[in-house]
Amino acid sequence: MLESLPMTSSLITTQAEFDDLCQHMRESKLVAFDTEFVSEYTYRPELCLLQFATAERCVAVDPFEVQDLSAWWELMAGDKTTTIIHGGREEVRFCLTYANIAPRKVWDVQVAEGLRSRSFPLGYDALVKRILGRTAHGRETRTDWRRRPLSDNQIAYAVDDVKHVLEIYDIQKKSLTKLKRQTWVQAEMQRMIDEVASERAPESWQRLPGIHRLSARELAVVREVYRWREAEAAAKNRPMRKILRDDLVLEIAKRRPTSEADLLAVRDMNRPEYKKAAAAMLACVAEGMAVPKNQLPVLPKSLDEEKSHDEQVVGQLLGLALANRCAELNVAMGLIGKTADLRHLVRWHAYGEKEGEPPRLTQGWRAEVCGDLLTDVLNGKISLRVADPQSDHPLVFERIPDAATEDRTDAVQEPA
Q1: What percent of the chain has pLDDT over 70?
Q2: What's the sign of the alpha-carbon dihedral 238, 242, 244, 246?
Q3: Per-residue pLDDT averaged across 229-235, rounded?
Q4: N or C: which end of the chain has fewer CB within 10 A?
Q5: Which band of pLDDT confidence, cut at 50, 70 and 90, is reported for residue 2?
Q6: Residues 6 or more apart whose Cβ sits within 8 Å of residue 382
Q7: What one-character-per-residue DSSP string does 243-295 give?
Q8: Which residues contact 186 (CB under 8 A, 6 or more apart)?
Q9: Backbone angles phi, psi at 411, to 5 degrees
């Protein structure tokens, strides 16, 4: 087991020091990594501090002083260095932004904990307490990380976010190896990386909230307005929501204004910056309206709402079975699947709606955990009964024996 790193830390502010650190990390091949950033004012989050820990060193790096960070992004994107993160979607985004390549070998201790316990997601302080029995410093939640100089206290707090990570990783890796679940972690890391990378795909406009309630023609308008908004945000280095709010993108698509007066009559559109951009937004509306009918965008089928009461009931039953299996295997249910995943399985398996990718619950390690159980419930091969009303786990799922043989010796009982 790795020993806890000493509290002493340093702030790297020169290129030579940083290059030396990268050489050290290249030789170490195992690095804990975290960042501090501010996302309220720029198109992409502004990187304000990088924190690293190896078995020998624990330091912070000031990106305002160290201009060339490419050596680190190359390490993170390479196949020689394993990067250990906590809730590290933003760290993956930074790698994609600065290296234009996805990281190769990543281990997220927050995800890993959910694959060996039902605790997910755990914050960093709670994770340190749970696994190591120690108290982390907490977080500088009110710090404006853009301001300089940084105080010793701020640096200490920031570095503490990586101080315990390698020791946690060491414990998790041994535990998950013993449980034969290391491949689960690898699969979840790749899924997370793929999800982050997909945020920059041309069809990212499809993730706007409430978009599934729009018509195909309205979707065409949304697409054009969204793409204009993103281009404006990138050019002006401002958050997209500061250029035009999500709800206003949808409202413009619904109203499809043809004049500046119509556009600015939309509630909350009477702002000077919107008036200046009125011509551009109206052009987007016109482009969306000009899309030929046979080329209108079609969204993937939504799983946001149940199609019927029967689907809701079946989904709830599967939820009970999934919760039961997760308790049995000591895995976090929230990591395995959400309500939408259960609905997808019901529609695919029970109603024959087999469009797109198969349900996530039937793929990879999730199929190993619960795929057969849930499909057997849908096929009527599993019965549910109340075993002990006084118990904390009163429900029992039992496999129905083969009617031809009446062989009850292999009935499976799974206390819920």
Answers
A1: 90
A2: positive
A3: 96
A4: N
A5: very low
A6: 321, 373, 376, 397, 398, 399, 400
A7: HS-HHHHHHHHHH---SHHHHHTSTT--SHHHHHTHHHHHHHHHHHHHS-GGG
A8: none
A9: -65, 135
pLDDT at residue 240 above 80? Answer: yes
**Residues 199, 125: Cα–Cα separation, whole Å:** 29
With vertex at residue 165, the alpha carbon angle to CA 164 and CA 166, rounded to the nearest 5 degrees, is: 100
Q: Tell me what the mean pLDDT of segment 122-139 comes to.
A: 89
Beta pairing partners, 415 = 396
Nearest in space to 374 (alpha carbons), one of 303, 297, 315: 315
What is the distance in angstroms between the CA of the first residue and the CA of the last residue of the chain? 35
Distances (CA, A) of 348 to 56, 212, 305, 364: 51, 20, 15, 17
Q: In this structure, what DSSP letter does residue 302 have?
A: P
Looking at mean pLDDT, say which of 96-105, 310-319, 395-404 comes out highest: 96-105
Handedness of CA 188, 193, 195, 196 (dihedral sign): positive
d(CA 144, CA 39) in angstroms, rounded, equals: 11
Are 332 and 114 in contact by the 8 Å Cβ rule? The answer is yes
> Looking at the predicted structure, is the pLDDT value of residue 312 above 90?
no
Q: Please tell me which residue, 126 or 353, carries the higher pLDDT value.
A: 126
Q: What is the DSSP letter of 360?
A: G
The values of phi and psi at residue 378, to 5°, are -65, -30
pLDDT (tens digit per residue) in 385-411: 877 777 656 667 788 876 444 444 444
* Per-residue model confidence (pLDDT) at position 169: 98
For the chain, domains (ranges, CATH) are 10-198 (3.30.420.10), 204-295 (1.10.150.80), 309-415 (1.10.150.80)
Angle 124-132/165-178 helices, nearest 10 degrees?
Answer: 60
Rounded average pLDDT over 96-101: 92
More confident residue, 208 or 387: 208
pTM of the model: 0.86
In this structure, the chain runs to a length of: 416
Sign, CA dihedral 72-39-186-53, equals: positive
What pLDDT was estimated at residue 302? 63
Cβ burial 233-247 (10 Å sphere, 16+ → b, else e): beeeeeebebbbebe
For residue 262, give both structure tokens. Answer: 């119509």
